[in-house]
Amino acid sequence: MGLTMVAHAAPSQEDTATDAAAIMEAAVAAPGPGPGLSVDPALLAEALACNDAGSRDGAVLLVHGTGLTASESWDQTYVPVLTADDYSVCTVRLPMRALADAQVSSEYVVYAVRELYERFGGAVDVITHSQGALEARWAVRFWPDIGDKLDDLIMLSGSNHGTIAADAICLQQLKGCTESVAQQRPGSLFLAALNNGDETPAGPDYSSIYSFTDEIVVTSALNPSPAIAGASNTAVQEICPFRPVSHIQMITDTVAYALVRDALDNEGAADPERIDRKRVCTRLVADGMTPVDALINASTYLPAGASIFLTRGMAEPALKPYALAALPAEAQAPSLRPVRSLLSSAFGLAGSR
């Protein structure tokens, strides 16, 4: 059978852009649970681990950060502490130590929230560390049913507007950096799509907890990358001035944990006014955790750093079709001049809040 060649007039660039915009607008407006999940359901199920059900309503889902596993972040910290306090606690293991495309990793969070909502019969509380905030927020933004299934979204040191560390890693690796690290560069297409418009879509109560001495998600009072519009945004130094808390240490810090529990145990987001400052400012390790737990947690810098720096050859993935609708028309690809990107990160020029 032969092939019939039919000549057509090539559409103009303006017509193509108009048609694409119409398609994206219709896709966003269409009812339904959001995009279909591209990951094998068996892999999604295998990545979810839960303890025995506690007596409290709902469940808590823990989402880890870049270069780590769920076990490394949570098994010596939040899992035993929350379990002892009768919470149903689950973890999700993001693929490739959360070094792969964050859009794909977000599907693991979508699956986990849906599964826990059905399994435990109540709204789910999500606690994230570092990059985990991006997957959780991406899930709420692009899967409409997820927000309805959440109670609290609590972020520890979330890289919500990117981090200068991602710029530095991508700069020194001449072969490129991993996909999720590239997505955490200030000005990335991923962050542009995530943060365009409403940063806190309806559904959960948002709490962002961070530190001015964070060496990974570098932040300051003038440029708090973890802070998002519409959330309760609190630096631990606002409660305990001059308190040094590093990126990994946020998981075991007393002040951070007190804010997490305040959000979990009360209506609404974390409220720093309810924190007993005299008590938390005199303690280093969170209630229920030991100094040994904190040391084990701190040791996760080694596998995290090794996995990040030894995995190369990737760049920022293209946005999924469903995310293109959220990308501002004026958005540009991340700068090809690393020094300019680094300066933008350091002085808060990468984008508005």
Descriptive report:
The chain has 353 residues and is an alpha/beta fold. The protein has a single domain, classed as 3-Layer(aba) Sandwich (Rossmann fold), CATH 3.40.50.1820. Strands 1-3-2-4-5-6-7 form a seven-stranded mixed β-sheet, sandwiched between helices. Helix 5 crosses helix 6 and helix 8 packs antiparallel against helix 17. The longest helix is centred in the first third of the chain and has 19 residues. The N and C termini lie far apart (59 Å). The N terminus and C terminus are likely disordered.
Overview features:
353 residues; alpha/beta; Rossmann fold; 7-stranded mixed sheet; 17 helices; 40% helix; 10% strand; disordered N terminus; disordered C terminus
Rg, Å, rounded: 21 Å
- Proper CATH architecture: 3-Layer(aba) Sandwich
Q: Tell me the major beta sheet.
A: 7 strands, mixed
End-to-end separation: 59 Å
What is the name of the CATH topology? Rossmann fold
Strand content: 5-15%
Average pLDDT reading: 84
Looking at the chains present, what oligomeric state does this protein adopt?
single chain
Total count of domains: 1
Q: Outline, from the CA principal axes? A: globular
Regions with little confidence, pLDDT below 50 for 5+ residues: 1-31, 332-353
For CATH, the homologous superfamily is named as Alpha/Beta hydrolase fold, catalytic domain
Structural class per helix/strand content?
alpha/beta
What is the N-to-C succession of helices and strands? Answer: HHEEHHEHEHHEHHHEEHHHHHHH
Organism: Salinisphaera dokdonensis CL-ES53
InterPro entries: AB_hydrolase_fold (IPR029058), Lipase_EstA/Esterase_EstB (IPR002918), Stereospecific_Lipase (IPR053228)
Protein name: Lipase B
